[in-house]
Amino acid sequence: MQTNLLLTGASLPQTERFYTVLNSAHKIYLSDSLALSGDTFIQIPLSDDGAFAHKILKICLDHDIKVVVPQLKQELEALASAKTLFSEYGIAVLCPSKNILDLLNDKSRLYNRLESEGFAVPAISKLDKFDSFVSTMLKLGYPSKKIKVEPISKRLNSDFRIVDDSVDAYSSLFPNLQNPLISYTQLSKLLSADNFPELLLSVCIDGALQSQIGYYEKGTCKTNTYEDPEPLNMILMQLSSSIADVLNLNGSYQLDFVQTEAGFYFTDLKWMMEEEYLLVSIKNELAQLD
Q1: Which of the ends of the chain has fewer CB neighbours closer than 10 A, N or C?
Q2: Helices 107-116 and 98-105: angle between axes, nearest 10 degrees
Q3: Could you confirm whether domain 101-120+207-271 is CATH 3.30.470.20?
Q4: What is the CATH code of the structural domain delimited by 4-95?
Q5: Mind listing the pLDDT tens digit of every residue in the chain (290 residues)?
Q6: Which of 123, 61, 52, 62 is nearest to 89 (CA)?
């Protein structure tokens, strides 16, 4: 069955590849805030437009569009709150629900939710005033434990630092992006001005990093990273599926863990917007409409 789709981010390189893969069986409308050309191109407002979701809905109704694929992170914020409204008109929006997006945007809420369900997560504490810095660090176990510092709302996945007093001047100036270090003294000086964003401090868990990527429908995993799982991967799959069920995940997500002698600690949840995973979400959504 031919379905009409609306893809935002028409100027992105991956959009052309989506068009090539999907256009033979479906009608693809491309959209962007830039004024581009094309028979099926529709110019849309910027995502910070207060009526963004309603304008996208009108476009969908005018062109009988059944699936909306937002490709820009800022568009997720605008459309997540309107997913229920779109669904009332039989239109699927491929983005996290508002509840899940709130958890993605505030890891402290995500950790608290999963900890209440019995999952192992690192010890955490929020910090919004310098006056609480010393007591918060001590409460988390510094200096015997390394502490991870990151903004509550990240712009990039690389927006974090590990408090480690062994860091030298070279590593401070040119940090390893996989393990960016900062000394307690340096961090204290930066925070003392009290003009920092709200931070999440967490205990660094030593162990092997493990990830599980899967496509989920109503909390059930339909496809996953491992086609021929080994025993360790089976544990990850089962743990990821349990978390997905609790959160009622829909779409493509990556779940991150640290493996220790005591077991697995959950560390992060990511909505997958990369080309191959977004295409999986699109194809699965279209299959449900057939």
Answers
A1: C
A2: 110
A3: yes
A4: 3.40.50.20
A5: 799 999 999 999 999 999 999 999 999 999 999 998 888 999 999 999 999 999 999 999 999 999 999 999 999 999 999 999 999 999 999 999 999 999 999 999 999 999 999 999 999 999 999 999 999 999 999 999 999 999 998 878 889 999 999 998 898 889 888 889 999 999 999 999 999 999 999 999 999 999 999 999 999 998 876 655 666 678 888 999 999 999 999 999 999 999 999 999 999 999 999 999 999 999 999 988 87
A6: 61
